[in-house]
Each structure stands twice: as structure tokens, then as C-alpha cells.
């Protein structure tokens, strides 16, 4: 039993020595933020240059600090990105973020999680695509890094099932057989514990 205790302690030490996962929040454009200058008809900085000087990994966030004169569109479709036109874009590969406001010039910030490895594209489709055509867009390559954190690595929701329409016949009631047998849980847990100790003891041999 002493040896089992030592092994358990070693396992605990190894687990706690694993470095804590760390992810990066990239503020898009740095201090400049995500803006278009309508006087000069250009983005206020070169966003492709900004992006080229960063390493992006799964689980990182892009933080867009902007106002409601710009939009944030994320796409995985290079055609959509290059055309600056989201009219024909599919809902599967293009996501629109907006501040939920129809007032011009209101400050807003949006955090976009990087959850898909490989090319990701960002653009503003405001001013009928002129902002995007004139520099308010960039492409990044998302590396695997340490992978997604559990908070972003959710399984997809179950597929949608059409509810029965009002005029379809009611489905037969299915009787659920048996209840949860009581008193079984404890003995099962005890069996699991015995199995764990059995494996540990086998490792010792
Ligand atoms: C990064 O941004 C996300 C989303 O806003 C936030 O939950 C997280 O705390 C931020 N992390 C750091 C280190 O600022
Ligand atoms: C837009 O550019 C003009 C001309 O360079 C400058 O005067 C103005 O401050 C800029 N506006 C913004 C919001 O950056
Ligand atoms: C701004 O730039 C776009 C794309 O380069 C061009 O189509 C548009 O005519 C320009 N608008 C103004 C007001 O100069
Ligand atoms: C990235 O930015 C840092 C700090 O501004 C600078 O020192 C470095 O040269 C830049 N690297 C690239 C590849 O542009
Ligand atoms: C990209 O989007 C265009 C429409 O904008 C569509 O025709 C094309 O099939 C899409 N490409 C991929 C790889 O989904
Ligand atoms: C936002 O756009 C509106 C309409 O084009 C313009 O009047 C206003 O000056 C812009 N505000 C900012 C902060 O860029």
C-alpha cells in the first residue's frame, strides 16, 4: 500500500507540473483599433501588416475596438474575402457581428474566438464594401498551438428535428420500463475504485 501511495503522489505532482494553458488576446490594429477614415477613404492603418506581425493560435481571441460605422465579418471563404461582398456568402462559413445598434459612431468592442485552424478572413462590409476594398480587411493563418481550451471546445448541438405538425397523428406513448434501482450506485463506485487500485497494483509488478 505504501508503494501505491507513492505512485499516487507522483501522479499528482506530474499533473500539477503541466504548464497552465495560456492564450493570447490580439487587439486588432493595436492602439489604432478597427476604423475606416471616410476623409482619406482608407483604413486608418494597414491591417495586413498588423496581422503579419502576430502569431495566431486556436483559443486566442481577436478583440475589435471600433464604432458602429464599421462592421466585423468573419469568413473562412477566400472568395467572399477577396470580393468584399457577403451578399452570396453561405451562413456556414461567414459570420456577421454587429453592435445591435443603428446609430452611427457608437463605440463597441467585440471579441471573436479563433476556433478553426488554417485561413481565417476578416473584413468590414460597411459602405457597400468600400471599407473592405480600401483596406479594412485582413487574412490570418490560425496555428494549432495547444488546441482549443475546454471552454471553446463544445460538442456541436444535436441535429434539429422537425416537431410533429398539428395534423399528424399523435405518436404512441412509450412506457419507460423500470426505475433507477436504488443502492446500486455505491457498490458500482466501490467496484470502480477496486479496478483503479487493481491497475495501480498491476503497474507495480
Ligand atoms: C480575452 O478575451 C476573452 C473574451 O473577451 C476574455 O474572456 C478573456 O478573459 C480575455 N483574456 C485575457 C488574458 O485578457
Ligand atoms: C482622417 O484623415 C484626416 C486627414 O488625414 C484626418 O484629419 C482625420 O483626423 C482622420 N480621422 C480619423 C477619425 O482618423
Ligand atoms: C473610395 O475608394 C473606393 C475603392 O478604392 C472607390 O471605389 C471609391 O470611389 C472611393 N470613394 C471616394 C469618395 O473617393
Ligand atoms: C513586430 O512588432 C515588433 C514591435 O513593434 C517589432 O519589433 C518587430 O520588428 C515586428 N516584426 C515584424 C515581423 O514585423
Ligand atoms: C465561397 O462563397 C461563394 C459565394 O460567395 C461560393 O460560391 C463558394 O462555393 C464558397 N466556397 C467554399 C469553399 O465554400
Ligand atoms: C460615422 O458615419 C456617419 C455617417 O457616414 C458620419 O456622419 C460620422 O461622422 C461617422 N462617425 C465617426 C466617429 O466616424
Write the layout of secondary structure elements.
Layout lengths: L1 H16 L7 E3 L8 E2 L4 E2 L3 H6 L3 E2 L3 E7 L4 E4 L2 H6 L10 E4 L9 E7 L4 E6 L6 H4 L3 E7 L40 H21 L1
Parallel strand pairs: 1-5, 4-10
Antiparallel strand pairs: 2-3, 5-8, 6-7, 6-9, 9-10
Bound molecules: 2-acetamido-2-deoxy-beta-D-glucopyranose (6 copies).
Descriptive labels:
5 helices; five-stranded mixed sheet; disordered C terminus; alpha+beta; binds 2-acetamido-2-deoxy-beta-D-glucopyranose; Immunoglobulin-like; 205 residues; three-stranded mixed sheet
Give the class from helix and strand content and strand pairing: alpha+beta
Strand order within the widest sheet? 4-10-9-6-7
- CATH-defined architecture of one domain: Sandwich
Ions, cofactors, ligands: which are bound? 2-acetamido-2-deoxy-beta-D-glucopyranose
Helix content: 25-40%
Level-1 CATH class name of one domain: Mainly Beta
Regions with pLDDT < 50 over 5+ consecutive residues? 174-205
Broad shape = globular
According to DSSP, the number of beta strands is 10
Mean pLDDT: 80
Radius of gyration: 26 Å
Strand content: 15-25%
How is the CATH topology of one domain named?
A: Immunoglobulin-like
Amino acid at each position: 500500500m505504501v508503494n501505491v501511495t507513492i505512485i499516487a503522489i507522483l501522479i499528482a505532482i506530474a499533473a500539477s507540473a503541466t504548464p497552465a494553458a495560456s492564450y493570447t488576446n490580439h487587439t486588432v490594429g493595436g492602439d489604432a483599433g478597427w476604423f475606416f477614415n471616410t476623409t482619406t477613404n482608407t483604413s486608418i492603418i494597414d491591417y495586413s501588416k498588423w496581422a503579419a506581425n502576430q502569431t495566431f493560435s486556436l483559443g486566442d481571441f481577436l478583440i475589435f475596438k471600433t464604432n458602429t460605422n464599421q462592421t466585423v465579418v468573419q469568413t473562412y471563404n477566400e472568395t467572399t474575402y477577396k470580393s468584399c461582398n457577403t451578399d452570396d456568402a453561405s451562413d456556414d462559413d461567414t459570420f456577421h457581428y454587429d453592435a445591435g445598434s443603428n446609430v452611427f459612431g457608437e463605440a463597441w468592442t467585440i471579441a471573436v474566438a479563433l476556433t478553426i485552424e488554417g485561413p481565417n478572413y476578416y473584413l468590414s462590409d460597411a459602405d457597400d464594401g468600400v471599407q473592405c476594398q480600401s483596406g479594412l480587411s485582413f487574412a490570418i493563418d490560425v496555428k494549432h498551438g495547444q488546441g482549443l481550451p475546454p471552454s471553446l471546445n463544445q460538442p456541436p448541438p444535436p441535429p434539429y428535428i422537425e416537431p410533429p405538425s398539428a395534423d399528424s397523428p399523435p405518436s404512441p406513448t412509450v412506457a419507460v420500463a423500470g426505475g433507477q434501482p436504488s443502492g446500486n450506485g455505491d457498490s458500482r463506485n466501490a467496484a470502480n475504485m477496486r479496478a483503479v487500485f487493481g491497475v495501480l497494483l498491476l503497474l507495480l509488478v
